[in-house]
Write a structure and sequence with these properties.
The chain is about 40% helix and about 15% strand. By secondary structure, it is α/β, with parallel strands linked by helices. Among the domains are: about 200 residues, Rossmann fold, CATH 3.40.50.300; about 200 residues, Rossmann fold (3-Layer(aba) Sandwich), CATH 3.40.50. The strands form 4 sheets. The protein has a 6-stranded parallel β-sheet with strand order 6-5-7-8-4-9, sandwiched between helices. A 5-stranded parallel β-sheet has the order 10-19-18-11-17. It is globular.
Length: about 750
C-alpha cells in the first residue's frame, strides 16, 4: 500500500452525496412527497439549504422522526428526558415572546424594504391580526448586567416520567387522510400532518393546502400539486397562502443548512425563483401572521451611533442589515446572548481565594497556567486546541475540585465522555470517581446525568467545562447557559478547525470572533504522524508524513465499487492483521449517505462481511453496529442486543436503550460507516476515511480535518478524489452561516 496520494489530474466529479432530508421525506411520503431534495439555485445563502443533506444536516435529518409517537416507557429514557427538557425550554421561550408583544420603538430611520415591513407590521397592531415580531435596534452600551432570564428550566424529579408526545386521535388522522386522498397526496402522511397542525387539522389543510409544507420532506412543487387538486383554478402562484408557506419553508431549509436567519434580499430572491410574484408582500404576510420574525442588526454593532446633525433629516444612519428568521432560533440566540452576558458580568462565586488560584496556576505550565488564571477570575472563558489540549482541561477540573468547587465537564458524545473520563483517571484526580464528574451535554440537560438541579432549577454546580463546543447548536447552547446559576464559571472548549454543529448556528466561532471574554489557545501539540498530518490540515497544508508504524496509509482506488471493496478488506482483514486493531474498534467515515460509496452502501457491504443476517427486525440483527439518533442533530454509536415486542434493544456506550418499533426506521441506521458530522466528538483506535471519485465536491478543509482527526492510532484513506483532496484542504473553507449572535453579544457588552 502506498503512503502518498497519486498525483493525477482531477476529473469532473459528480455530486458526492444524497441529502438526508430527502431520504427522510421519502420514508414519510412513501416515495412521493419525499423525492430527492434538490432546490433550484436560489443564490448562495438559500441555495446552501438545498444541499444541506450532504453531511452538515445528515444527523439532524436522520432523526426527523425520532421524537415521534411512542408508548410511555416504564422508566425514563435519555431521549424522553431530553425531549422533556426541550419542551420546558419552549415554554420559557413562549413566555419570553409574550413579554415582547407590545409595541417596540425601533426602525424610525429605516427606509426601503425594512421600512415597508415595519409599517406593515404596525398596521396590524390594531388587533385584527396577531403581531408576533420583534424589531431590535440595540444601542451599544457599556458593560452591564444582563437581565435575569425569565425562567430557567425546572428540575425534573426522578419519580416523574415524561410521557412521549401524544399521538393524534384516530379520528383526526382519518379525517386528514380523507383530505390527502382528495388532493392526490399519500395518505401515509396523515399522522404527521395531524401532529403538525393539531386540532382541526383536516379543516386547516382543506382551507390552506400549502400547510402540507410543514411536514418534513414535502417539496413546494408537491404542495402546489396538492393545492391545485383541492382548489382548482383558485390555486395560483400569487396566492397569499402560498407565499406565506414558502417563506416558512425556505427559512426551515436555511436552518437545515446552519443559518439562524436569512438576509432579506436572499429570502426575497429565493421566493421569486419559486414563482412568487411579490416576494416582499409574501414576507410581510408571514411576519404579520407570526410565522417569521424580522430584525435589523447593525453591520458594526460595536461602532458608536452616528451623531445627529442639527437637522434630524440630515443625520447619518447606522448601516444595518435586515434579517428574517424563525422564532425558535431567533429567541434562542437572544437567550444565549443574555445568558452569556449574565455570566460574564457576574462575580464568580467564592471558591478558593485569588491566592489559591494563583498558586495552582504557578504549579502548572504554559497555556495550562493561563487557563487556570483565566477561569479563576472570569465567568466565561474560551479554550481552543486539538486532542492533546484535553489534558489542560483535565488539569483544570482537578484543580477546581481541590479548591472546593462543584466542577463538571460535559462532552458532545458518549464516546468523548468515556475518553475524557479516562484522562481524569490517568491524572489520579482525588474525590469522586472521574466518570461521575463527566457527562454528555444531552444527559446534563435532561437530568439523566450530571449534578442535578437546585431548588431554583439551575444546575447544582460551580464550574462547567463544555468540550466539543463547535458541535453545540444554538438551542442546546442556550439551554446550557440558561441552566447555570449566577456566579458559576463556564469554560467553552473545542477545536475551531472542526465542522460546525449539525443544527443551526455557529456558536463557538461567533464567540471567538466577538472577543467578549478571555481566550486561551493551547500550546500542547498533537504528537506523532497523525498529529503532524492533522495539524498541517488545520493550516491548509496536506503534508506527506513519515509513518514507520503504518499510522497513516493511503489506499488509491479507481471507482466507487473498488472503494467499497477495499474498505471492507481494510476493516475486516488488513487493519486487524497489520495494526492489531479489531473491526469493532475501527470506524469508517464517508462524506454522505447516498451514492455508490455512501454510508448506506458501505454499511450494507460491512454487514454482509462482519455480521451477516436476514435483518429480522426492520433490517437489523443482534450484533449490528448502529447509529442511533434520539433527537435531531444527535447520533449515538451503539450495537443491537436483541429485539422483542417492546422494540429494538441497543447498547450505547454501556447504556441500555430501547427504540420502539414505530421509531426504528426514522431514528436508526447501521453504524459501521458514519458521516463526519455523525463522528464528530468521538475518537476510535482506527479510522478508515472513504473518498470515492464523486466526493470531491463535498470536501472542505473542516470536513477533512474532522474526519482525519477521529483516528487515535491508525488512519487509512481510501483515496479516489485525486487532486480534489489537497485542493479542498488548501482552498475550500466552511460555507458561511448567517447568524445574529455576534450582534447580540456586542450589544450586551
Amino acid at each position: 500500500m502506498s503512503t502518498e496520494p497519486e498525483e493525477t489530474e482531477p476529473g469532473t466529479p459528480e455530486a458526492a452525496t444524497e441529502g438526508d432530508t430527502a431520504e427522510g421525506g421519502a420514508r414519510a411520503a412513501d416515495g412521493t412527497a419525499g423525492s430527492k431534495a434538490q432546490t433550484p439555485d436560489t443564490g448562495d445563502t438559500v441555495g446552501d439549504a438545498s444541499t444541506a443533506g450532504s453531511d452538515e444536516t445528515g444527523a439532524a435529518a436522520d432523526a426527523t422522526g425520532a421524537g415521534g409517537d411512542g408508548e410511555a416507557a416504564a422508566r425514563q429514557s435519555e431521549a424522553e428526558a431530553e425531549l422533556a427538557a426541550q419542551r420546558i425550554e419552549r415554554e420559557r421561550i413562549e413566555r419570553r415572546k409574550a413579554e415582547k408583544q407590545g409595541p417596540i420603538e425601533a426602525g424610525g430611520k429605516l427606509s426601503g424594504k425594512a421600512a415597508d415591513l415595519l409599517a406593515a407590521v404596525r398596521a396590524v397592531e390594531s388587533g385584527t391580526k396577531p403581531v408576533a415580531t420583534v424589531f431590535a435596534d440595540p444601542e451599544p452600551a457599556p458593560n452591564r448586567p444582563a437581565p435575569e432570564p425569565v425562567r430557567r428550566p425546572q428540575p425534573m424529579p426522578e419519580t416523574v416520567v415524561p410521557s412521549a408526545p401524544a399521538a393524534p386521535a384516530a379520528e383526526s388522522v382519518d379525517a386528514v387522510r380523507g383530505v390527502l386522498t382528495a388532493g392526490g397526496a399519500p395518505d401515509s402522511l396523515a399522522p404527521q400532518v395531524a401532529a403538525a397542525l393539531g386540532e382541526g387539522a383536516d379543516e386547516q389543510l382543506r382551507a390552506d393546502p400549502w400547510l402540507l409544507l410543514r411536514v418534513g420532506g414535502v417539496r413546494p412543487e408537491q404542495a402546489d400539486g396538492f393545492a391545485r387538486a383541492l382548489l382548482g383554478g383558485e390555486a395560483g402562484p400569487d396566492d397569499e397562502r402560498r407565499g406565506r408557506a414558502l417563506t416558512g419553508w425556505l427559512l426551515e431549509q436555511a436552518a437545515l443548512a446552519g443559518h439562524t436567519a436569512l438576509e432579506m434580499p436572499a429570502l426575497t430572491a429565493a421566493l421569486a425563483q419559486r414563482g412568487v410574484p411579490d416576494a416582499d408582500e409574501a414576507v410581510q404576510h408571514a411576519v404579520a401572521e407570526g410565522e417569521a420574525l424580522v430584525f435589523q442588526d447593525a453591520l458594526d454593532p460595536r461602532a458608536p451611533a452616528a451623531e445627529q446633525a442639527e437637522d434630524p433629516e440630515e443625520g447619518q444612519e447606522r448601516p444595518v442589515r435586515v434579517l428574517v428568521g424563525l422564532e425558535r432560533y431567533a429567541l434562542a440566540e437572544e437567550s444565549l446572548a443574555d445568558g452569556l452576558a449574565r455570566l460574564i458580568n457576574s462575580v464568580p462565586k467564592d471558591a478558593g481565594s485569588a491566592e489559591e488560584w494563583e498558586r495552582a496556576a504557578e504549579a502548572a505550565k504554559g497555556s495550562t497556567a493561563e487557563l487556570i488564571r483565566a477561569t479563576g477570575g472570569h465567568g466565561v472563558t474560551l479554550h481552543t486546541g486539538g486532542e492533546a489540549s484535553l489534558t489542560e482541561l483535565a488539569t483544570l477540573l482537578r484543580v477546581a475540585a481541590e479548591l472546593g468547587l462543584r466542577a463538571w465537564a460535559a462532552t458532545h458524545s458518549p464516546v468523548g465522555r468515556e475518553r475524557f473520563a479516562g484522562l481524569l483517571d490517568e491524572a489520579d484526580r482525588p474525590g469522586a470517581s472521574a466518570a461521575a464528574q463527566v457527562t454528555t451535554v444531552a444527559g446534563l440537560l435532561s437530568g439523566a446525568e450530571g449534578p442535578g438541579r437546585d431548588a431554583d432549577g439551575a444546575l447544582d454546580l460551580d464550574l462547567l467545562i463544555v468540550l466539543d463546543t463547535p458541535q453545540l447548536g444554538v438551542e442546546a447552547a442556550a439551554l446550557v447557559v440558561e441552566s447555570l446559576p449566577d456566579g458559576a464559571r463556564l469554560v467553552l472548549a473545542g477545536d475551531p478547525a472542526v465542522l460546525w454543529s449539525a443544527g443551526p448556528g455557529r456558536v463557538f466561532a461567533d464567540l471567538l470572533a466577538a472577543r467578549v471574554c478571555p481566550q486561551i489557545a493551547s500550546r500542547v501539540p498533537d504528537l506523532g504522524p497523525l498529529g503532524e498530518l492533522v495539524s498541517g490540515i488545520g493550516i491548509g497544508e496536506l503534508n506527506q508524513v513519515d509513518a514507520p508504524g503504518k499510522e497513516v496509509v493511503i489506499v488509491p482506488v479507481r471507482d466507487a465499487g473498488e472503494a467499497v471493496h477495499r474498505t471492507v478488506q481494510l476493516v475486516a482483514d488488513s487493519v486487524p492483521r497489520a495494526i492489531g486493531i479489531p473491526p469493532e474498534q475501527t470506524q469508517v467515515i464517508t462524506p454522505g449517505h447516498g451514492g455508490a460509496a455512501g454510508t448506506r452502501a458501505l454499511n450494507a457491504a460491512l454487514k454482509e462481511r462482519l455480521n451477516p443476517g436476514p435483518g429480522r427486525f426492520a433490517g437489523f440483527d443482534p450484533g449490528d453496529r448502529v447509529a442511533y439518533s434520539p433527537t435531531p442533530g444527535r447520533t449515538l454509536p451503539g450495537q443491537v442486543v436483541k429485539a422483542d415486542a417492546a422494540g429494538l434493544h441497543l447498547s450505547c456506550a454501556g447504556a441500555d436503550v430501547v427504540v420502539p418499533k414505530e421509531r426504528v426506521e426514522q431514528s436508526l441506521r447501521h453504524g459501521w460507516a458514519l458521516t463526519a458530522h455523525q463522528a464528530a466528538g468521538g475518537r476510535w483506535p482506527a479510522v478508515v476515511v472513504v473518498l470515492p471519485g464523486d466526493a470531491g465536491q463535498a470536501l472542505t478543509r473542516p470536513w477533512v480535518y474532522t474526519a482525519f482527526s477521529r483516528a487515535d492510532r491508525h488512519l487509512s484513506v481510501v483515496h479516489g478524489v485525486e487532486q480534489a483532496l489537497p485542493r479542498a484542504v488548501s482552498e475550500i473553507q466552511a460555507k458561511p452561516r448567517t447568524t445574529r449572535l455576534p450582534a447580540l453579544l456586542a450589544a450586551n457588552r
